[in-house]
Amino acid sequence: MNNKATVFIVDDDPAIRDALKHMLRQDDLAVETFDSAEAFLVTCWSMLRSCVIIDIRMPGMDGMQLQAELSKRGVLLPIIFLTGHGDIPLSVRAIKAGAVDFLTKPVAGAALIASVQAALIKSETLHSQAEIIHSAATRVASLTEREKEVMVLATKGLSNKEIARHLGISHRTVEIHKARIMHKTDASTILDLARIVDASGLRV
What's the per-residue H, E or C state across the chain? Predict the structure, then answer.
């Protein structure tokens, strides 16, 4: 696999695809092009440093629909929209839905490169956040149901005695559960444990 940052281009106009590919490769970026949203969805993937440039108006599935589908699939791929039919309401919708930028054709090389570099930085951030969430969720999932109950109460600030009274178990049993929880989650403090619970997405 190429170690370069990768930019995917989805545009039904071959001349536009070639022009964008030429500009991006001059900046030492790997480029993959697709002539439709449907073709891109067949093979789309996200890497640590990647983004996609999407034409808003295409036959079949348009750019906004592709953005919605990528979001539905959980694909971590920052989006830059490029269109010859740009308008303010459309750009606002695109940005609100998570797009990094909205550029109109013809786009200057410098503006395109700047937008792509911002998207690649966002790509790294998204993958880093995803790794944190996955790690936290995995650690929390390793706990027993009782341990999860103790963990939730502990992160709410309850003392061992209060947790014991709330769950109808002994103070010593709470201490044993907490020791196991800290070991399994690799948390060093209750505050650290609370961060892990928050990152895991566990509903408290």
Answer: CCCCCEEEEECCCHHHHHHHHHHHHHCCCEEEEECCHHHHHHHCCCCCCEEEEEECCCCCCCHHHHHHHHHHHCCCCCEEEEECCCCHHHHHHHHHCCCCEEEECCCCHHHHHHHHHHHHHHHHHHHHHHHHHHHHHHHHHCCCHHHHHHHHHHHCCCCHHHHHHHHCCCHHHHHHHHHHHHHHHCCCCHHHHHHHHHHHCCCC
Tell me the whole-structure pTM to 2 decimals.
0.68
Per CATH, which fold does 142-200 belong to?
Arc Repressor Mutant, subunit A (1.10.10)
CATH of the domain spanning 6-131: 3.40.50.2300
The residues near 156 (Cβ < 8 Å, ≥ 6 apart) are 204
The pLDDT value given to residue 1? 42
Q: pLDDT tens digit string along 117-155?
A: 999 999 888 878 888 888 888 999 899 999 999 999 999
Question: In the chain, what are the domain boundaries?
Answer: 6-131, 142-200
The number of C-alpha atoms within 13 Å of 198 and in the hemisphere containing its C-beta is 9
pLDDT tens digit sequence for 156-171: 889 999 999 999 999 9
Percent of the chain with pLDDT over 70: 95
